[in-house]
Amino acid sequence: xxxxxxxxxxCFLIDYFVKIRExxxxxxxxxxEIDSSIRTVEWKDNKVIMIEQTKLPNELIFVEYDxxxxxxxxxxxxxxxxxxxxxxSGAFGLGLAVLQSKATTKDDLLSDLEDARKILFATRPTxxxxxxGLDKIMSIAKTxxxxxxxxxxxxxxxxxxxxxxxxxxxxxxxxxxxxxDDNDTIMTHCNAGALATVAYGTALGVIRATRESxxxxxxxxxxxRPIQQGSxxxxxxxxxxGFDVSLxxxxxxxxxxxNGLVNKVVVGADRIVKTGHVFNxxxxxxxxxxxxxxxxxFYVAAPLSTIxxxxxxxxxxxxxxxxxxxxxxxxxKTAPDGIGVINPAFDMTPPELITGIITEKGVATAPxxxxxxxxxEVNN
Length: 380
Description:
The chain is an alpha/beta fold and 380 residues long. It has helices spanning 4-28, 68-76, 83-100, 106-121, 128-141, 147-177, 203-212, 229-240, 253-258, 284-293, 324-327, 368-375; strands spanning 41-44, 47-51, 62-65, 185-188, 218-222, 244-248, 264-267, 271-273, 278-281, 298-301, 307-308, 328-329, 332-333, 346-349, 356-359, 362-364. It has 2 domains: 41-169, Four Helix Bundle (Hemerythrin (Met), subunit A); 172-375, Rossmann fold (3-Layer(aba) Sandwich). A 7-stranded mixed beta sheet has the order 6-5-4-7-10-15-16, sandwiched between helices. The longest helix is centred in the middle third of the chain and has 31 residues, at 147-177.
């Protein structure tokens, strides 16, 4: 049995440790301070470091992984998202796999890498950048002569891909900035910013470059249900960078355009096929349709790594996500049990709705079957 003095000592210790735990928690998840120069994903000390995007905008948490299976789970659960970002993340995942492998021969190491590639590729089937990043690493790995050389090639190539992503985004931004005028109000859908890439962004990179060219622009961001990338990520990024940004419900896109609130639209993409069909976050097709109805230019910004010259539009797999993303917000249910849910992650926007496709090599315009292949010939 405790005497009274021991009882109060115990209470003091409990209170002390509770306060210490709270201070540690706050120090690890303090309000976000982030800008377009911070890397969404990077390689450091043989680990992959990522911003945990499901916690934004309320908490800034960096997670680190030393197992490619952890990277695969991060891609699947949207800890990291955005086509360019998951392309680099997949490459980094193979970097971890090459370190994890116990192989002592080239053939065994390549076999282990192929097993890891399959696991990583299965996480997000629609975004072409993931397959691009994985295939690029596998191709370079096959050129190595020894196990050690393959390890060095895989890791150095993945790190170079991350560095190149930033420069590609800046070139894309410069190419797109000439399409926007002073005092434009630009609508964007989902998040195609620094958080969707290694840094700077695709669609938001174009908006950033437009401002950097001396033009004054405003932005309208759609909330982008059901995961709310527009409200959680895009509005947050732009506000932090000092833009005049307004948030609208997805259902207010038509209202905004009909009432003259929007001059132009720019979005990102997860896959573009050679016919100019664009696969992007669900709701993009609706935004493009409304833009066409109201005579508003609709642009897509994406690197060449997002363009798939081989696959036909009808053959692209649209990822279907779990119904709970629609039937609730966090732990709170917003729909009754026992109902069906249709929750596609992406939709397809046909080329006739698209004014231009902005890339690091220039801007493609209709007819896209002619202009898109020409982009790959520039400076090659």
